[in-house]
Amino acid sequence: MTNLLTFDIEEWFHANYDGLTPDRTKGSSFRAHMDTLLQMCSDAGCKATFFTLGCIGEDYPDIVKAIAREGHDVASHGYAHELAYKQTREEFRADVQKSVDILEDLTGTKVLGYRAPSWSIVESNLHYLEVLEEMGFLYDASIFPVKTFLYGIPTAKREIHKPIVNGRELHLYEVPMSVMRVAGRNVGYSGGFYFRFFPEFVIRKAMQSANRRGESSIVYLHPREVDPSEHKLDLPSKEHFIHYYNVKGTQAKLANILGAFAFTSISEHLKGQHT
């Protein structure tokens, strides 16, 4: 069973907490983080999907070209990490289109997938998936079947599917984030905070269970999560815990998971399993 490896390609200061004005003049170790992630993919012999901000394409065109050159998916993460549910439908369309134009110009290949910043496709703006369909996307990967104070659609389907919006099945796939059932609730386990929070044996067990059911597990991480020395946002205690807990252990845990399971990109998986 092949699992799906994804990264949200953004800087350490890209976040969507209210009232946050990070000091972007501090610089970053973004290039080093990307070298690390690309090398880890190479070492594991796997392909991944890199959901990339359009502004990253403007600031680091060589890195976007390197991602594509090494055979990975370059997918859209929007232009500047703005929450989709705070945009009008037309603002959303313009934002996604801006990112697509930048990324396609750099790579020379069609952008097939999209993931909203901070999982910001929720019930109130689910119809924005129609925009992605109209733009010719193969898939969306923005829905997290959980409920948190930041995001989530807890009743969403857990498997890859073609979503129904306004009574119509769309001509694109929804690739929801992986969850496990804990005390009757959906809980993430294989990405971001959940990947950092849960011990490796819990992640392995959940992935094995999903694979036995014939389901792919989806890993997602950010470049900043492989470097505990990267600059940090000044956040309240709860948000700081969510954003940074156990960053120091992420790189080694990811290397172990990549060595224990088979991974590929979302578009390669869809071509092989859902066409």
From TrEMBL:
GO terms for molecular function: hydrolase activity, acting on carbon-nitrogen (but not peptide) bonds. CDD domains: CE4_PuuE_HpPgdA_like_2 (cd10941). Gene3D superfamilies: Glycoside hydrolase/deacetylase. It comes from the Bacteria. This is NodB homology domain-containing protein. It comes from Paenibacillus oryzisoli. SUPFAM superfamilies: Glycoside hydrolase/deacetylase. Pfam families: DUF3473 (PF11959), Polysacc_deac_1 (PF01522). GO terms for biological process: carbohydrate metabolic process. Residues 16-275 form the NodB homology domain.
